[in-house]
From TrEMBL:
Coiled-coil parts of chain: none
Signal peptide (residue range): 1-28
This protein's name: SCN2B protein
Keyword Translocase included in the entry's annotation: no
Keywords: Disulfide bond, Glycoprotein, Immunoglobulin domain, Membrane, Signal, Transmembrane, Transmembrane helix
């Protein structure tokens, strides 16, 4: 029935959103995070953020910023940062309730917010830079704090369908990532070769002043 289809489609969309968000773009690395997370007041919640990169993570170059925005027009407040090591910026609103639970070497920069409060609602921005990738990746999460647990729906069919479709999309995304990484590294090699050729041409053009008199 139409009434039964609505929760089914809702669950299916929620399952596929993180996978669809992982689709590669033309601008360097990709950062993936759920667009919205619901948390029950007083509980702990994990704000998941992962990224894809063609390069291995090196702590000396890798950087991460987590910021908080109370509203769309509000300024961003930095509360968690990675520069060689993880550094918590103890904002008054969070105190010591922020715990980094990711692992950058495994392309995971998630954190857990403990004892969630109503005033924690807002937008959480995840910024990642992993040189030699030139573009900084970014993803946003809208956190909604609930005062009571929402009613549960039977999502068995949605899970099965979502897992099947999600698995297929994951394979497609993996293939696209490999192709993109190969193209990017090839382009970087071409740029390097062109630069060397140009430098060699300048050197040949200068020549040897004695050669012209012989």
């Amino acid at each position: 029935s139409p009434a039964a289809c609505t929760p089914f489609l809702t669950h299916l969309c929620l399952l596929l959103v993180p996978v669809l968000m992982a689709a590669p773009t033309a601008l360097g690395m990709e950062v993936m995070a759920p667009t919205t997370i619901n948390a029950l007041n007083g509980t702990s919640v994990k704000l998941s953020c992962t990224f894809n990169s063609c390069y291995k993570v090196e702590n000396k170059q890798f950087s991460l910023n987590w910021t908080y925005q109370e509203c769309s027009n509000c300024s961003e407040e930095l509360f968690l940062q990675f520069r060689m090591k993880i550094m918590n910026k103890q904002l008054d609103r969070f105190g010591n309730r922020v715990e980094f639970t990711g692992n950058p070497t495994k392309y995971d920069v998630s954190f857990t917010l403990k004892n969630v409060q109503l005033e924690d609602e807002g937008t959480y921005n995840c910024y990642v830079l992993n040189p030699p990738d030139r573009h900084r990746g970014h993803a946003s999460i809208s956190l909604k704090v609930l005062t009571q647990e929402p009613p549960k729906h039977d999502s068995t069919v949605a899970v099965i369908v979502g897992a099947s479709v999600g698995g297929f999309l994951a394979v497609v995304i993996l293939v696209l990532m490999v192709v993109k990484c190969v193209r990017r590294k090839k382009q970087q090699r071409l740029n390097t070769d062109d630069q060397k050729t140009e430098e060699e041409g300048k050197t040949d053009g200068e020549g040897n002043p004695d050669e012209g008199t012989k």
